[in-house]
C-alpha cells in the first residue's frame, strides 16, 4: 500500500475551515499588518474583522510571505508520518511564498515532497486543490495529480470584478486618474488570471451589467457542458447572491461551491470583490 498523500497550501487558497479539517490539509498562513500590529491570515484575524478595519484604514495593510522556517514546521509532522507531500501555493508572480517553500524543501532534503507553483490564487488555487484532493481520494498517485494540474489552466475559466478601484490605487496597481475616472463613470472592470498575473478583460458600466457580462463570458466558453463552479466574494454578500442567481440560471454546474476571499487577498481587491472560476473534467 502506497504512502498517504498529504496536501499543504497557504492561506491565499481561501479554503473553509470545514474543508481543511475534512480533508486533513495543512495551511501555512501568510501575514499582514496594520501599522505595527502583525497578524497571521485567518489565524489572528478573520475576514469580518479584517474588512471592517480595512474600510476604516488610510493605508493598505502590508502583507508578507511565510518564512522557510514556517514551512519546515508544517512539513515536519508529515515527514514523520512518512507521507507523500504535495505543497501547492500562490503564484510566484504575486508572492515569494513558493520560493520559501522550495527553500524549506532543500533544507529538509525529503524525497517525497513536491512544491508546486499554482500560477494562481484565491478561488483559482482553491479549485486546483479540490481537483487534486478528489483524485488523491480516488487512489490517484502524486504523478497523476501533477499531470492533472498541468492541464488545469486549459480547462478553466476565471473572472472577477472589483467594486471600486480605490484599493488597487492604494496598492499601486493603477494611477489616480484611472481610479477617479472609473469611479466617476461607475465603471466596473472585469479581470482574469493568466500565468500568475491579473489581466483586464472588459470595462462595464454598472454592477448588474458587469455581473451579467461575467456570466455571459463564462457561458460562451462552456456552453451547456457540466462544469465545477466556485464563486466567492470579499465582504459583498449581496453581489455574491446576484452572481449566484445568474450562475444557477445559466451555467450547468455539476457542483457549486461558495467561498470567501480572506484578509491577504482582500487587501488588494478591497471589499466588493466578486469572482467565479469554472473548470471541466479532463
Features:
12 helices; Hypothetical Protein Tm841, Chain: A,domain 3; 43% helix; Rossmann fold; four-stranded parallel beta sheet; alpha/beta; 282 residues
- Mean pLDDT across every amino acid position: 91
Number of strands: 13
Order of helices and strands: EHEEEHEHEHEHHHEHHEEHEHEHE
Note poorly predicted spans: 172-182
**Relative helix content:** 40-55%
What's the CATH topology name of the largest domain?
Hypothetical Protein Tm841, Chain: A,domain 3
Do you know the CATH architecture of the largest domain? 2-Layer Sandwich
What oligomeric assembly is this protein in? single chain
| Alpha carbon gap, first and last residue | 27 Å
- The best one-word shape is globular
The fraction of residues in strands falls at: 25-35%
Q: Helix/strand-derived class?
A: alpha/beta
CATH class of the largest domain: Alpha Beta
Q: Tell me the Rg in angstroms.
A: 19 Å
Helical stretch tally: 12
Q: How many domains make up the coordinates?
A: 2
Q: Main β-sheet, in a few words?
A: 6 strands, mixed
Q: Output the strand order for the largest sheet.
A: 10-9-8-13-11-12
Overview of the structural elements:
This protein has 282 residues and is α/β, with parallel strands linked by helices. It folds into two domains: 5-29 and 65-150, Rossmann fold (3-Layer(aba) Sandwich), CATH 3.40.50.10170; 154-279, Hypothetical Protein Tm841, Chain: A,domain 3, CATH 3.30.1180. Helices cover 43% and strands 27% of the residues. The protein is built from twelve helices and 13 strands. The chain has helices at 17-22, 47-56, 68-81, 97-108, 122-137, 142-150, 152-155, 166-170, 176-184, 207-222, 237-250, 263-269; strands at residues 5-10, 26-28, 31-34, 37-40, 62-64, 84-89, 113-117, 156-161, 187-194, 197-205, 227-233, 253-260, 274-279. The strands form three sheets. The protein has a six-stranded mixed β-sheet, sandwiched between helices. Helix 3 (68-81) crosses helix 4, helix 5 (122-137) packs antiparallel against helix 6 and helix 10 (207-222) runs parallel beside helix 11. The longest helix is centred in the middle third of the chain and has 16 residues, at 122-137. It is globular, with a radius of gyration of 19 Å. The chain starts with a strand and ends with a strand.
